[in-house]
Structure formats: structure tokens, C-alpha cells
Amino acid sequence: MKAKRRHLQQLLLLLVMMLSTLSATKATSQIIRPGCLERCGSVDVRYPFGTSDGGKECYLDESFLVICNHSFNPPKLFFRENDVPITSMSPADGELRVATSISRECYNEQVSLTGNKDESFSSMYTRFPVSTRNKFTAVGCGTIGIIENLGKRSYNTGCISSCHQIEDVKNGTCYGAVGCCQMSIPEGVFGYIIKAGSLTNDTAIRSFNPCAYAFVADDEAYNFSSLDLANLQNRVTFDVVLDWSVGNETCENAKQGMSTNACRANNSECINPSNVGGYRCICSQGYHGNPYLPDGCQDVNECESHPSPCHKDATCHNLIGNFTCLCRTGFEGDGRNATGCSRKVGPRGQTRLAIELGEDDHGATNSNTTSRFDSLKNHFKMPYDDGR
């Protein structure tokens, strides 16, 4: 009976794995919209964004139409009415990144101005606000950085960083505004002007800090270093994260018009973002991919993740949209890191050595182990030794 049950379990798992493979193959073939440009330089172009090369079917509407400029080597991706390069886009996260310039004001060791440059950025479209994941940063000794909002919302702020010698500066942090200072970006910012300036004529700092710098950048991507005091003069841009959404309605309204609902994948969901109007689509839990395309959300194989989602005494088996952890022979539990896997015990809390030692991990009887256990039974009275 036990062998038959184990055989049925093995057949079931084999069937599940076969179905998972077939489903993944089908989804992969439909991640890219047929006939549309897939890549521009180093950027993967993903629907609802698209170029006009394959016609209007390649992009959701005019605000998602992008241009691949082949005059650059490699080619660069841009919005239609903006000269700021797009460096990456993620339909799954509702984010894209653009390369924005650094504002700077530079001096020589005689404190003579050698160059200054203010910078500005505008997303052009109200559905692409600057993400609150970014921070405004000013770098330098005696540096003031100012950021002003471009738009109807009033937003004007800045910060000052100071230091007298490079030994004052601590790597990895802007805490205390020593060498750098930072300000959060509020919701509802669609464009800005940034300015950097120097507040000191101290000639001693110009050998290691020739410029005052100011920029907006993804907070997770920028980590301050004392080397930035000099080396940022050789850097041109930082990546800024933009949020985006589709439509001009909420999820509740979008679901009522199923023919125009942009969430096309079977295993997708609609969410209302906080930083912008409209709605956004995501793949359901256990799936990943592009929720804006039919069959665009693929099953996630959690068993390939590191570390494993299962307990060390369990085997991971991928399922469609989920996974299961099966404890190995002689163990019981959920197989995950909640209750994990523990050895099976007898009716009085005693470990059933006859079961644990009598089978190997594959369910086969080990005659040598069983023989040794029978020998132990002759010397010790087991609490449940009633012939079981």
C-alpha cells in the first residue's frame, strides 16, 4: 500500500512539472509583441512603450511612443519631445530610468570661476512623475544646492554641505551634511531646475574639491564617496527613476470597460498608484513578466531561487503560480521555514526508529539497517513494542 501511494505521488509530481514546462514555453513566446522593435542599444523596449517601426500596435498611445535614435553608437532611446535618454524600462514595476545631467560650478586653485552649468529636466507628460525613490543631492565643501519645481506645484528647496579637509568626510553617508547633503523628492514633481554654487573662497579645498555639484538620482544607486569631491567633474549624468501609469481612470472604472482595460495578461492585477493618476498593471503573486500583453505573466520558478524557499530536509517542487515543499522520508512538517521538517515521532513522543532507520531517502528498505535495529530490540524494551 505504501509503495502504491508513493508511486502515485511520483506520477502526480511528474504531471505537475510537465504542465509547468508547457505553460512557461507558451508564455515566453508571447512576451514580445510581434513585429515591434525589441531593443534599442542597451535598452529593452517593452510594451506599452514602443516605436513607430511596427505601427501603432507597438505602443499603447502617443505618450508611450519612443524614438530609437540610430545616429548614436550604440543607438539611444528617447521620448518624442525630450532629449533625455531612456536607460531602462520595467513594465512589471511601473518604472523607467532616464539619464539626467549634473549641475556644477567649478573653480581653480586661485578661486577663479572656470565654469558653471545649471540643469533642468521635464518629463513632458503628466503620467510620468519623478519617483520619490530619488533624492536631491549636493556634493562639495562649502556647497549650496537648490532645486526648483517646473510646474504648477510650488516646490523650492535646497541644502548646504561643508568640510575643511578631506579627512572630515565620511564615505557612504551624507548624514551631518559633511561633504554632501540630501533632500527627499515629494510626490507630484514632473520637472525641475537644479543649481549648484560655492559659498567659500577657501583655496585649500580646491586641490581635492574643484567644483560644487548638485543632481537628482536614484537613492539606491548612489553611494557617496570622498573621491566624488574631485571625480564628479568627470561624470556627466545620473539615472533618475520616473513612475508611470496608464489611462486616466482608476482600477475600479477600468475593470468595467474590459475591452479597454490595459491589464491584458490572464494572471495580472490592477493597482492604483499613489504618485500619479490612472492605474498600473502587475503580475499576480507567483508570476512575473509583462502584464500588458496576453499571456505576458509567466510562472515564477521559486525552486530556482537562492536561498531555497524550502527547508534543508525538504525537496522543492514548482507549481503553476506557486510551489510546494515535500519533507523527505521519515520527516514531517510544511517543508518551509515556518515549521520546517522534523522527524516523525511515535504515539508516546518516541522516535519511530523502525521507520526512520528501516528506509533510505528513496523509500527502499535497508536490510543492514533493519537487521541492526532488530538486534537493538532484543536488548531494549521499546515503549510501543507490541509487534508494530
> Total strand count, please?
24
The backbone outline, from C-alpha atoms, is globular
Report the uncertain regions.
Answer: 9-27, 351-388
Radius of gyration: 30 Å
**Alpha plus pi helix count:** 5
Q: The biggest beta sheet, please?
A: 5 strands, antiparallel
Main-sheet strand order equals 3-4-5-6-16
Class from helix and strand fractions: alpha+beta
Strand content: 25-35%
Query: Terminal Cα separation, in Å?
Result: 16 Å
What distinguishing features does this structure have?
disordered C terminus, five-stranded antiparallel β-sheet, single chain, alpha+beta, 14% helix, 388 residues, globular
Structural features, described:
Residues 1-27 form the signal peptide. GO terms for molecular function: calcium ion binding; polysaccharide binding. Keywords: Disulfide bond, EGF-like domain, Repeat, Signal. It is a single-pass membrane protein. Residues 259-298, 299-342 form the EGF-like domain. The chain is of the alpha+beta class. Among the domains are: 31-66 and 83-94 and 245-299, no CATH class; 96-243, no CATH class. It is built from five helices and 24 strands. It has helices spanning 2-28, 228-231, 251-256, 353-358, 367-377; strands spanning 39-40, 43-44, 66-69, 76-79, 85-90, 95-101, 103-107, 113-117, 119-122, 134-139, 143-149, 156-161, 180-184, 191-198, 211-218, 237-243, 268-271, 280-283, 287-289, 297-299, 314-319, 322-327, 331-332, 342-343. The strands form eight sheets. A five-stranded antiparallel beta sheet has the order 3-4-5-6-16, with no helix packed on it. A five-stranded antiparallel beta sheet has the order 8-7-15-10-13. A four-stranded antiparallel beta sheet has the order 9-14-11-12, with no helix packed on it. It is globular, with a radius of gyration of 30 Å.
